[in-house]
């Protein structure tokens, strides 16, 4: 992990960058400028979702960037209200048109929801088989969701995108995914800025001449976690990407992991039941 474009090989052989831009709750011109800035800085992975309401702007910025499509990795997700076999296929067509892309690099089930994720997964398998999607995965799935999915399908998700940061490292889930060759990806890797005043992180940051955010993101990379920090501020988009010129020691990695307190800031997947 020496460069911004370095990637991990997913379980189906597709290469995905370790680092990308998240676009949650970013809309209109704001998200368009953020994607443009990120691509100009060398980002090659962009994460969006149908429910974010910004696929069209993301797609326009990608098209206007002049970056070769083959070097980009675009992720989007099917929302709960579209779960089910036929509805997922229709939702994919909508996302594809909004993004202006015939092929999506990674398509995820956004949340397990109540009881339709197996039907949704069959639709994703079809899209993958038809070449409309290069890789398929899940988001916010807990161990029991993954176990249920794997009971009825030989297709192992390439990714499980979940809330993960130093206060919520989800070790059991991470270990389960590693055993099944499912790459863990972190949303809210910076805990939405709530760790900026942590003394341990500040001390490590000072030692390396880096910011707390850069230390957290470097910890994620060295823990073999795909990370997609969200920002719409050009200076922070740049700062977040400047994490490939230093390395944390094993002692520092362990100390940061020791901050784990099971502190979730997002929704519990077992409680988002629709």
From TrEMBL:
Mark the transmembrane ranges: none
Q: Which domain of life is it from?
A: Bacteria
Among the Pfam families in the record, one is: Aldo_ket_red
Kindly state which keywords UniProt assigns to this record, in alphabetical order.
NADP, Oxidoreductase
Show the PROSITE patterns listed in the entry.
Answer: ALDOKETO_REDUCTASE_1, ALDOKETO_REDUCTASE_2, ALDOKETO_REDUCTASE_3
Q: Does the keyword NADP apply?
A: yes
Domain (NADP-dependent oxidoreductase) ranges: 21-259
Q: Could you say which protein family the record assigns here?
A: Belongs to the aldo/keto reductase family.
Recorded hits in PANTHER family, A to Z, give:
2,5-DIKETO-D-GLUCONIC ACID REDUCTASE, NADP-DEPENDENT OXIDOREDUCTASE DOMAIN-CONTAINING PROTEIN
| The protein's name in its UniProt record | Glyoxal reductase
Which species expresses this protein natively? Paenibacillus borealis
């Amino acid at each position: 992990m020496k460069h911004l474009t370095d990637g991990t090989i997913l379980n189906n052989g597709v290469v995905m960058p370790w680092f990308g831009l998240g676009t949650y709750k970013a809309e209109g011109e704001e998200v368009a400028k953020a994607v443009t800035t990120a691509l100009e800085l060398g980002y090659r992975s962009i994460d969006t979702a149908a429910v974010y309401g910004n696929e069209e702007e993301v797609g326009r910025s990608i098209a206007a960037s002049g970056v070769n499509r083959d070097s980009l990795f675009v992720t989007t997700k099917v929302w709960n209200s579209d779960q089910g076999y036929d509805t997922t296929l229709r939702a994919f067509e909508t996302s594809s048109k909004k993004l202006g892309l015939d092929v999506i690099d990674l398509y995820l089930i956004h949340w397990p929801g109540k009881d339709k994720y197996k039907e949704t997964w069959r639709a994703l398998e079809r899209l993958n088989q038809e070449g409309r999607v290069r890789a398929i995965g899940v988001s916010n799935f807990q161990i029991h969701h993954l176990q249920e999915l794997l009971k009825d399908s030989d297709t192992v998700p390439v990714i499980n995108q979940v809330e993960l940061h130093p206060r919520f490292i989800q070790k059991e889930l991470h270990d389960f995914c590693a055993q099944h060759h499912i790459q863990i990806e972190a949303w809210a890797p910076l805990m939405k800025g709530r760790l900026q005043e942590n003394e341990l992180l500040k001390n490590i940051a000072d030692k390396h001449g880096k910011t707390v955010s850069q230390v957290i993101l470097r910890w994620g990379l060295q823990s073999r976690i795909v990370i997609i920090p969200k920002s719409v501020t050009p200076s922070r988009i740049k700062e977040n990407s400047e994490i490939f010129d230093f390395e944390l020691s094993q002692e520092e990695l362990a100390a940061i992991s020791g901050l784990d307190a099971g502190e979730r800031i997002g929704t519990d997947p077992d409680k988002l039941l629709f």
